Amino acid sequence: LDPAGAFSDPNFDAKAFVSDRLRLEEGNTADAEVRVLTKGLAGIEEKLRTEISTKTESLLASLSCVDDLHSLISSLKEDLKEIESKMKQVTAKVREPQLVLRQQSTQLRSLRSAIALVISTTNYLKLVKKLKKSMQATKEGDGSKLGELAKAAKLLREMRNLQQEDGSLDKVNVVRSHAAWVRETWEAVSLSARDALHCRVSEANYGDVGLAFQVYFNLGELEQVVERTLLQHSETIAKSLEVALTNPAGSKGGQGRSGLLGNFGVFLNDVLACMLDVWQIQRVLSSKFDPATNTSFLEVCSSSKKKGDVDQPYALTTNLWHSTCSTLSSRLGTAFYKSISLKNELVSHYPDLAQTLRSFVRLLQKETSHTNGVLSALPNYKSAGNQLLRSVEAYQTAFKAKSLNRMIEAVNILFSPSSRSLPTSSDMKRSIKCFFTEIQRCETDDGDLIPACITNVAKAVRLMKERAEKLVASGPEVKKVSGACTNQQQRNIALCCRIQEVYTTLGLLLAKIDDSEANDALSNALEALKDVSSEAVAPLFRSMLEMLEGSIVHVQEENFAKRGDGSSDMSVYLSDLLMKISHCRTEYLAKFKIESSSRSIANEMVNGMIKKLASRVLEFYLRHAALVRNLDGPGRKCLANDMKQIQGSIEKALCPLEALDALGGSQRSFQSFVTILLTETDDLRRQEEELSSVPPVDLVHHLFSRMPDSLQSPQEASGLPTAKYVIWMEQHSTQEILQAAGEAIESYESKTEVGLPNACSLALETIKGQKIK
Predict the structure, then answer these.
(1) CA pair distance 213, 195, nearest whole angstrom
(2) Looking only at Cα atoms, what is the longest distance across the chain?
(3) Is the confidence at residue 755, as pLDDT, over 80?
(4) 552 CB burial (10 A radius; 0-12, 13-18, 19+)
(5) At what angle do helices 222-246 and 259-287 cross, to 10 degrees?
(6) Which of 233, 285, 390, 462 would disulfide-bridge 297, Cβ 3.0–4.6 Å?
(7) First and final CA of the chain: distance in angstroms?
(8) pLDDT per residue over 148-171, tens digit each?
(9) At what angle do helices 381-390 and 393-414 cross, to 10 degrees?
């Protein structure tokens, strides 16, 4: 470790140096280290002396430069002092003309102000002179007074503008001497224009209104005057409404209208007068433009009154209309909650109130409609009418609620929750009359209340449906058809007839209702009521059908061969079936009757169920008749004769056979099958129409009765009795049934050596034709 090098290090640390020396030189004492360090210092000192001796001349030269610099700085200080002295002298010489210039500028400004004041005064005096001349002309003029007043108003406005532009003008004595006269003239001009506006209503003359507005425009008061006019009309309307609501309503008129509505008519007349006046003002403003600036007067007045998307040409009338509707809504809203008598009267006569408001809007449209290029008062009268009706919406809601309560009360009286007694026919008529009375109350020229009333009728009908459901009798007695009609059956039949009377009568309304939602609501409610009627007698009809089907199944036991050859003419099943059909009419169907004071209303629902019953009997009989296998020619004639008797009995006891065509053509199929029975096998192909009218399944099964006995029918192949085979047929498709029949014929064809009989060929053709379809 070099001591000299360590001492020259700028980061030299004495403590660290000593510690390192003692550690590196183990065995040396501190004295020895001191001597080493002393020797190192001596060497350093020697080097320093040598360095100084070598650079002596350069050090002396540097010292000389420092002396020169000191001398230069001293010289600069003297120069700066001299410059500062010169600057003070120059500043003193410049300040004097600057003060003079500033004084002259002030004088020039004063001179200019004086000149401007003189000019303003001169102009003001000229305007005063012109104003006096114009005012003199208004006194001497014969018909142009408002025209001269408009000129005077323009002069007055120019004079006021001069005063506003130059505030010192009022301090000039000559101006102040005219101030009182100018102020009086301003008031006189404004008063003359106001008188012209007032005359527009009393004299129904709007010819001078435009000149009066020109006067106000020139005075700069046009917008304020129009605003004040609208405010006056709004106050007039509010006062008129208050009088209409607070004055005694009086007794009802000869037509049953409320006396309050008469007061309302007076109020609406006042509204109409105000709307007409503002409309006329709006027409005048829309046609007036300032000759000097071409500014539209209406634009000046309507810029602050436009609301939403309202067009500028309608701004004034629309503003007054909104104000009227707002006033009516606020006042009637307060009366709805604070005046019971007023509320009850308006709610009770709401249809008349709505009709009155609608008539008022139509009258307003008639009086202010768009003619000869003149815009109407309002852009959309339908929207305006709806807005007016919304102001009495609370009364409409209350009227609808009361109407619904009256109908519900009628239903409660008809179907008392605490009683299971059936309503009488007269009770039903009173209930229906209540519904029609409510509808008549809602009749107006626009018919806007009818949909809501019909919706309430639908709600009442649904309540009637709920109450009627609880009156339906149940138990085994309602299904018993072996004897006389039981009390439970008579109860359900009577309930069905009562409900059907409501359904049929109210159903007449559906064709007269244009509103689709109301029509759907009533239609759905009536269908729900009809379902209750159907469910009440459905067990009875099912039992009658089962009873008749129980007789029909015995056709398979009939020996048509004996009857055909004359050895037997007695048919037990037929006698039983005809007797039961007559029994259904006598004991049950004859009791379905609806009484009416004017006419007998057809029980459409019951007639529909009777038609379905008759149709099902014909279909069921045809199915079993087609399955009769042992039939020769005479036997087929006997079966055809039985079917004719059944037709006659059904037509007499149930319904006309022609009425069954709409239920799937069962009557047509039945008659065609009779024709087929009476036709020989070889001639069947000539009966194309009859063959196509009989269901293919029944036709093919009947053709098996004309085939050889060795050919098994599908029923015989299945091994099922007739009743179960019929059930099997109902559970399978036509294709599946015909496929089984076709397989039986084809199996026979494969075993026989002779050709197929005509009946087999016709059956195969029918099966193939059905497959193609």
Answers:
(1) 12
(2) 179
(3) no
(4) buried
(5) 170
(6) 285
(7) 124
(8) 777 777 877 877 877 777 777 777
(9) 70
| pLDDT band for position 308 (cuts 50, 70, 90) | very low
Contact (Cβ atoms closer than 8 angstroms) between residue 532 and residue 472: yes
Task: Give the C-alpha distances (Å, rounded to integers) separating 656 from 649, 660, 663.
Answer: 10, 7, 13
Please check the confidence at residue 42 and state whether its pLDDT lies above 60: yes
- List residues bridging with 374 in a β-sheet: 371
Taking alpha carbons only, the member of 588, 611, 593, 579 closest to residue 537 is: 588
Residues in contact with 705: Cβ distance below 8 Å, sequence separation at least 6, in sequence order: 628, 629, 630, 631, 636
**Residue 260 above 50 pLDDT?**
yes
Whether the Cβ atoms of residue 352 and residue 261 lie closer than 8 Å to each other: yes
Measured CA to CA, the distance from residue 54 to residue 248 in angstroms comes to 135
DSSP-derived letter for residue 406 is H
> Cα 367 to the chain's mean position, in Å?
32
Instruction: Give pLDDT, residue 232.
Output: 92
Cβ contacts of 441-447, under 8 Å, gap ≥ 24: 441/351, 441/403, 442/351, 442/403, 443/351, 444/351, 444/354, 444/355, 444/358, 445/355, 445/358, 445/359, 446/358, 447/514
**With contact defined as beta carbons under 8 Å apart, do 222 and 216 qualify?**
yes
pLDDT digit string, tens, across residues 107-120? 888 787 778 777 77
What is the crossing angle of helices 222-246 and 209-219, to 10°? 120
Determine the Cα–Cα distance for residues 70 and 13; give it in Å rounded to an integer: 40
In degrees, rounded to 5, the angle at the alpha carbon of residue 87 between the alpha carbons of residues 83 and 92 is 155
Lowest mean pLDDT among 268-272, 330-334, 483-487, 593-597: 593-597
Position 38 scores a pLDDT of: 81
Tens-place pLDDT, residues 348-361: 999 999 999 999 99
DSSP-derived secondary structure letter, 754: S
Q: CA separation (Å) from 51 to 2, 3, 7, 56?
A: 20, 19, 17, 9
- Over the stretch 27-41, which tens digit does the pLDDT of each residue have? 566 677 777 778 877
How many other C-beta atoms can be found within 10 angstroms of the C-beta atom of residue 136? 11
Q: Phi/psi of residue 39, each to 5°?
A: -65, -40
The residue with greater pLDDT, 477 or 292, is 477
